[in-house]
Amino acid sequence: MRPRQQFDRQLQLLQDRLVRMSEMVCQAISDAITALKSRDLQLARQVVTQDDEINALRFEVDGACLAILATQQPAASDLRRVVGAMNVVLDLERMGDHAANVAKIAIRIGDEPPLKPLIDIPYMAKQCCDMLRSVMTAYAELDAKAAEAISKQDDTVDQLYDQVFRELLTYMIEDERTIKRAMHLLFTAHNLERIADRVSWTAAWTRDHSGYFFSSSANSRGKRLTPNVRFLRLSELTYLFEHVLWQGDHAAGLAIEGNGHAVMRSKAYVL
Question: Are 229 and 133 within one domain?
Fold first, then answer.
């Protein structure tokens, strides 16, 4: 197998892992809300347990990204895809944590009588899952327009959260005996709102990095040229550098020179 074909295969396997992880997160969100509505404590505990699988997959993706950096030494747009995967997998893992938090709330509620029929909260969860599926498609296809639309959907979830907050606040003001049950639901809505935020961050990354190509020549900084290389922002480079250090793995050979260039295995990327 040729080096480029091998590299493309590694990228595809990386993308497949991200898709599988996003599906696991969607299932966790759906199951957590089902457990909350039906008081299914066994299902809630299952969601909490399966969060370990999502966490394990996150480290599997991290390891695959670092292996690509160390063995393939990707440049330009290829490097951007790897850095993007490292960003996306972190957000997916956090979404899984929020879903597990909802399941833990369902466990805490136990057999308590419901404070109110759950309407807005399940709808928030559905919106989060729809956004997540859409953003993974946009990310895979580097579809800036689709990513922009997904970012705007976060406003809908924010409005639902505000609505839930106001309604639950009214319950607590009118009857202090409802405070505990209302707070459980409020924290549930908060976790869903945070999931939508994480999805919107992935959408924003996709939107901002899907259509801008720059020359790596020091004589052509800031000029939009042919799509042979991509501009690597300092924030992305800093993230990559810190991530490698956090993993305790210096295989990527990353360093930042005083002249403002990033160097990876003697390949320069203009900042």
Answer: no
Domain containing residue 79: 3-211
- 134 with 146, same domain: the answer is yes
Angle at 247 between CA 128 and CA 57, to 5 degrees: 40
Residue 89 CB neighbours (<10 A): 24
Q: Do 206 and 216 fall into the same domain?
A: no
Phi and psi at residue 261, to the nearest 5°: -110, 150
Q: Kindly give, in sequence order, each residue whose CB lies less than 8 Å from that of residue 61, ignoring residues fewer than 6 positions away.
A: 14, 17, 18, 21, 85, 86, 89
Question: Other C-beta atoms within 10 Å of 159: how many?
Answer: 12
Residue at a domain's end among 211, 232, 254: 211
127-149 residue pLDDT tens: 999 999 999 999 888 888 898 88
Which tens digit of pLDDT belongs to each residue from 29-49?
A: 999 999 999 999 999 999 999
Residue 6, both tokens: 């091998």
Please state, in angstroms and rounded to a whole number, the distance separating the CA atoms of residues 114 and 181.
Answer: 8
Both tokens of residue 86?
A: 């490292």
Q: What are phi and psi of 227, to 5 degrees?
A: -80, 55
Place of tokens 């990228």: 11
Closest CA to 61 of 83, 78, 79: 83
Residue 212 has pLDDT above 80, yes or no: no
Q: What is the pTM of this model?
A: 0.77
Neighbours of 40 (CB within 10 A): 16
Q: How confident is the model at residue 217 (pLDDT cuts 50, 70, 90)?
A: very low
